[in-house]
Specification:
This protein is an alpha+beta fold. It is built from four helices and ten strands, in the order αββββαααββββββ. A hairpin with a 5-residue loop joins strand 5 and strand 6. The protein is globular and about 75 Å long.
């Protein structure tokens, strides 16, 4: 086989592999949800992520309680965040603690879910039952950080970063980045 034919075959192979790579990228951007919430607000992509069409935010489907089975303080939440991003959980390395304004958007009084204790809390049932009823957020002030509650009337309050009683975490990312 001549050198010209070998170079031609190698070039065709690169074109073909480039086409396959482009197809994979295109498919990833055009992925379809495996399920949607009853009001069509949330899309579950079957990969551990939930997309909120109202805010444009992508949430981890499972919270820290469902992933690790224990409570955590704010500092452990930050450590877990580093681990998640280092290991590219669900294919992403830009997870973060939600802001209080972002976290409160999950609270909807007309939607009922069951927390880890079997009690009602108010986020969409597209998120699995058995999770924690609140989340730490990125807003901090000295030795305290804001926790958003999804129980009862919902709400936000500063809690001690080490001993806060509502020690759960639900991570978020901005999929537009």
């Amino acid at each position: 086989m001549s050198l010209r034919k070998v170079l031609f075959l190698v070039a065709m192979l690169f074109v073909f592999l480039g086409y396959l790579g482009a197809q994979e990228v295109f498919a990833a951007k055009e992925r379809k949800p495996v399920s949607k919430s009853s009001d069509q607000r949330f899309s579950d992509y079957g990969d551990g992520t939930i997309l909120d069409s109202k805010t444009g935010l992508m949430w981890m489907k499972k919270d820290y309680w469902l992933l690790e089975g224990r409570h955590l303080n704010w500092y452990k939440a930050k450590e877990f965040l580093q681990k998640v991003n280092h290991k590219k959980y669900f294919g992403y390395s830009d997870w973060r603690l939600p802001t209080p304004d972002e976290a409160i958007t999950l609270y909807e009084r007309r939607k009922r879910n069951r927390d880890k204790d079997g009690d009602y809390f108010f986020i969409d049932r597209i998120f699995p039952k058995g999770s924690g009823w609140s989340t730490w957020t990125s807003k901090e002030k000295g030795q305290q950080a804001v926790v958003i509650s999804y129980k009862d009337q919902g709400g936000r309050e500063f809690q001690d970063k080490i001993n806060g009683p509502d020690a759960f975490l639900r991570l978020v990312r901005d999929p537009k980045k």
